[in-house]
Amino acid sequence: MPSTTDTAPPGAATPGTGPGAPPAPDDPASLKVVPARHYARWAAAVAVIVLAAQFVHGLATNPVWEWGVFRDYVLSETIVQAVWVTLQLTAYATVLGFLLGTVLAFMRLSRSPVLQTVAWTYIWIFRSIPMIVQLVFWFNLSALYEELGFGIPFGPVFWSVDSNSIIGTMGAAIIGLTLHQAAYAAEIVRGGVIAVDHGQLEAAAALGIPRLRQIRRIVLPQAMRAILPTAGNEIIGLLKGTSVVYVMSIGELFYQVQVIYGRNGRVIPLLLVATAWYVVLTSLLSVAQYYVERRYARGANRTPPPTPLQRARRFVRTLRAAAAQRNRPVIPLKTPGPLGDSR
């Protein structure tokens, strides 16, 4: 009995599916792709560009900035010496503060309740007192202790010296900045050590590695990835925080700027001088932080992304290769002649 439905023979094209047939309505190929239009994003970008252009125009045209005065003082001998003092304060406080902070961090991680209590109390006190109060306190230390001596505790003193002769103005500033920085550095280091998997220490102990070597060769290199970002921010904050020592009449950057504009009355351009130097120093510290973080990320990322300098070099090489390709002479191709004849 013949079938009521016609079946296409094998290999025959189904109607509506041939090479020239239009796609079916439910076929994804028939859908028109329309890119998303982010009108709000474009409006926000235009608004930001307009505001940035207004700000730059104001910097260039507003006579209050007095760019001539800025050029006269930005590289003057007095300002450069003040920048050097600022760098000295930052370097001493950073190195000594993180050394003391590392000791305090491991004291807090110790199993001794005495060490834990002493470290916690130190961090609590020095994080509670403002830096300017600490600096003024250390500046007036001779009012509390006229002499500093060496001898038996609670017993006779064998050797003593006037406190002012040991701790001068610069020394008081370094001590105040160091002790203040150590309290924050201790928590930064402790957070990085806690972030290391405890199984690393267990494996090192099973191999018989001494405790000090475990910390120096296993714990700290891994903890540096967690320590460096926060430590970098803290060092940058310390660089700007050295301006507080102006209360001690130390010739750092902000103090010298104050002295100069106190004499000539050019407040705005002199503040701009200080701002420019702080921006330059902060940028250099940020670049150093980037490369140090990149170095300690080698264990976790075997193929780190290229640095900005490497990207710039690659871009220059690409431009040179494209220019060389354009300047290369074009050699015309030979057209084949009749059969058996090549011209």
TrEMBL record:
NCBIfam families: HEQRo_perm_3TM (TIGR01726). It is found in: Cell membrane. Residues 1-16 have a biased composition (Low complexity). Its main location: membrane. Residues 83-289 form the ABC transmembrane type-1 domain. Pfam families: BPD_transp_1 (PF00528). InterPro entries: AA_ABC_transptr_permease_3TM, ArtM/GltK/GlnP/TcyL/YhdX-like, MetI-like, MetI-like_sf. Belongs to the binding-protein-dependent transport system permease family. This is Amino acid ABC transporter permease. The chain crosses the membrane at residues 39-59, 79-107, 119-145, 165-186, 235-255, 267-292. PROSITE patterns: ABC_TM1. Keywords: Amino-acid transport, Cell membrane, Membrane, Transmembrane, Transmembrane helix, Transport. It is a multi-pass membrane protein. CDD domains: TM_PBP2. Residues 1-28 are annotated as: Disordered.
